[in-house]
Amino acid sequence: MADTLTFTLDTGDGTGKDVVIKLRPDLAPGHVARITELASEGFYDGVVFHRVIPGFMAQGGDPTGTGMGGSDKPDLKAEFNAEPHSEGTCSMARSQMPDSANSQFFICFEDAEFLDGQYTVWGQVQSGMEHVHALPKGEPPAQPGKIVKATVA
After folding, report:
1. By the 8 A CB rule, do 52 and 141 touch?
2. Where is this region: Disordered (predicted)?
3. Position 16 pLDDT exceeds 90
4. S-S: 52 plus which of 58, 99, 148, 150, CB 3.0-4.6 Å?
5. Could you tell me which of 115, 114, 81, 76 has the C-alpha nearest to residue 98?
6. ω into 136 cis (within 30 of 0)
7. Reported pTM
8. Do the beta carbons of residue 41 and residue 24 sit within 8 Å?
C-alpha cells in the first residue's frame, strides 16, 4: 500500500494554522492528481477563501477570488463517489455541468448529505478543522482568509 498523501494548507502566515487533509486517490484519482499538480506549481499559494457560509462550507481555489476562475488546465471529468459530505470532507466545486471541476474546492463545516453523489469527494481534514471554522464568513468575506502556502507530502 502506498504512503498516505496529505494536502497541507497554511492559513496563518507561518503561525501554525495548518489544515492537514488526507488525500483520497482511491476515491478520485484524477482530482487528487490535479490538486497535487496545482499545489506543486504554487497555484494555491495566496489564494483566498472567497465563499465561506456558516453551517455549510468554505470554498477556495479560485485565483481571481471571485468564484468564477480556475487554472489554465482542462476541466476534470466527474469522479462522483459514495463518500458522504460530513464535517471536514473536501470536495471539488463545479458549475451546473458535472464535468466542470477545475481548481476550486470546498471543505464542509458539517453534514451536507444533500451533496452526496453530486460532487467529487477527494479528501478529509485530519487536523486543523478549527482553522477552517475560524475563516472569515461571507460571499465574499470583507477580509477573506487565505491559503498562504499549499503543499502535498
Report:
1. yes
2. 60-79
3. no
4. 58
5. 76
6. no
7. 0.96
8. no
Position 4 scores a pLDDT of 86
Superfamily of domain 4-152: Cyclophilin-like (2.40.100.10)
Contact (Cβ atoms closer than 8 angstroms) between residue 86 and residue 116? no
What distance in Å separates the CA atoms of residue 153 and residue 141, rounded to the nearest whole number? 30
Please give the C-alpha separations between residue 94 and each of 12, 61, 99, 134, in angstroms, as whole numbers. Answer: 27, 11, 8, 24
